[in-house]
Please model this.
Amino acid sequence: MTSPFTLTIDWLAFTLPTASARETMEVLGGDWTKTKGGFRGYRFVWITTSTGRGIGKLGTGVDRNPAEVHVDLSGGLVAQWPPEKVRAVIGWVLQKNGHLTRLDCALDDRASSVSLTTIKDAIAAGQCVTRAKCWQKTWSGLIHEGTATGDTVYLGSRQSQTLLRIYDKRLQMQTHDHSDWDQYGIRWELELKQDRAQLCAQMLSYLEDTLWLEFIVGVLRSHVDFRDTQRDEPDEYRYRAPLLDWWATLTDGFRKSRLVVEKAPQTLAEVKSWLHHSVGPLLAVVLEKPGGLEYLQRTAKAGKKRWKTKHHRLLQLPDHNGEPAEARTTELNGS
Model:
């Protein structure tokens, strides 16, 4: 039986004291494009995108060290890498005396066996044992429809080296019209930064894939535990109190989870969304130049000759929200 729990490495950022942009891009793979403007103080910037909602930025030429290279690989991009590539890239960064500045690990309770309400109630009741000093809960929705679009709990601060986000991933995916939204549930996402990210990366670089799960669950539990206790009890008792049943069951499930590689979007609507958010600004730059439209048309015509089965399949799918493109009309007044 397939485990309802999965682990995904979801974000990677690092700084190399001495490296070339070309070598770094070759190690990371993908298509990189030089762009105008700065990035975190770096004068020369390249970007790469994927249809998985991810974007990568590479910067070099910072005044304090012109040979320094910094890379940010956002969620949706690293999540599509197999574990062996994650390990290889981290290993290369460490060999270059690089420092990880951010590493996100996402543990998914895909069956939503523990609800956000249960988690919030436990925190409010003082059953959350953690070194974090603060927590926050956010909810978002549509005013006129009265429907929820997001629900998240934060444990820790954005300035700390460990931040835990617990959120309804299924709701998030459904809100953004992803076809596989029903395959998700509640996500427990650890955002590790600076020294914590570096230590975690060092462990992942030499641990076998099958040991990553146990290690990441240990990192999670070092940040938070849910125990049968109360807020006003002495700390020595709180840290030794029995685990709440649902927490013991959940973390045991995480230990038996499987590493996954997130698939790129498979619907035309998702591809269009990726083009809009990730490539739209670059398309606009090309169109501003003389002959830009003709160039894009030639590029599209050449691309059509390279269509594969997946591209032909996209043409057979509904264009948006299950409704064929030819069945819709667009009115300028927005009604």
